[in-house]
Design brief:
Belongs to the PRORSD1 family. The chain has a single domain (34-178), classed as YbaK/aminoacyl-tRNA synthetase-associated domain (YbaK protein, Alpha-Beta Complex). Helices cover 27% and strands 23% of the residues. It has helices spanning 19-28, 44-51, 85-92, 103-110, 136-140, 161-170, and strands at residues 33-37, 57-66, 72-78, 98-100, 130-135, 146-148, 155-159, 176-178. Strands 1, 2, 3, 4, 5, 6, 7 and 8 form an 8-stranded mixed sheet that branches. A hairpin with a 6-residue loop joins strand 6 (146-148) and strand 7. It is globular.
Length: 180
């Protein structure tokens, strides 16, 4: 797969945070994070050989739009969850159901491309255009850490679930917790 050029600014000319900026921000806010470098991965299946041994919950992420084009959604679930977009659409009230959003929209709204979707990218959603759906087990399951990409798919970060929730809330996003 070809490398995606991520624009350095959004339409309102603000700089989008990348890997180093997001790691610095997490540390600045006092969160205890671990960073694990690995080859680029584009699926959960190809990622797990590199990080599957780490204690905690591993995630997979989806960037979605509703069919009526009225809303954008980022969804984070445990890596091994079956996802039924029709059922989830009804639970969150997405007009017309949820569909995968185009990569150009991801780049514009959260500053990441295909294969790099991460809830940490909500940091770049300064206008709060994206709603966040979160598997409740990630926060409430008693996990030591939760793992996701830090804006790139060549690394994984581990963060305590309570710190992750605090970070997401610091971006102005309130997770919609769903039981899967």
């Amino acid at each position: 797969m070809a490398e995606v050029e991520i624009p350095s600014t959004s339409p309102d000319n603000r700089k989008m945070a990348g890997k180093e900026e997001i790691i610095d921000e997490l540390k600045r806010q006092g969160y205890d994070i671990e960073v694990f470098e690995h080859p680029e991965v584009f699926t959960v299946e190809t990622m797990m050989p590199y990080v599957g041994h780490l204690p905690g919950v591993h995630t997979k992420n989806f960037f979605l739009k509703d069919k009526k084009k009225k809303g954008l959604w980022l969804m984070t679930v445990k890596h091994d969850r079956e996802v039924n977009l029709g059922k989830i659409s009804k639970e969150v009230g997405a007009p017309g159901g949820l569909r995968f959003a185009d990569e150009s929209i991801m780049l514009d709204k959260i500053g990441v491309g295909q294969g790099c979707v991460t809830p940490i990218a909500l940091y770049n959603d300064k206008n709060k255009d994206v709603k966040f759906i979160l598997d409740s087990d990630i926060i409430n399951g008693g996990h030591e850490r939760m793992y996701c990409h830090p804006m790139v798919n060549s690394a994984t970060i581990g963060i305590k679930p309570e710190d992750f929730k605090s970070f997401i809330e610091s971006t102005g996003h309130s997770p919609i917790l769903l039981n899967f």
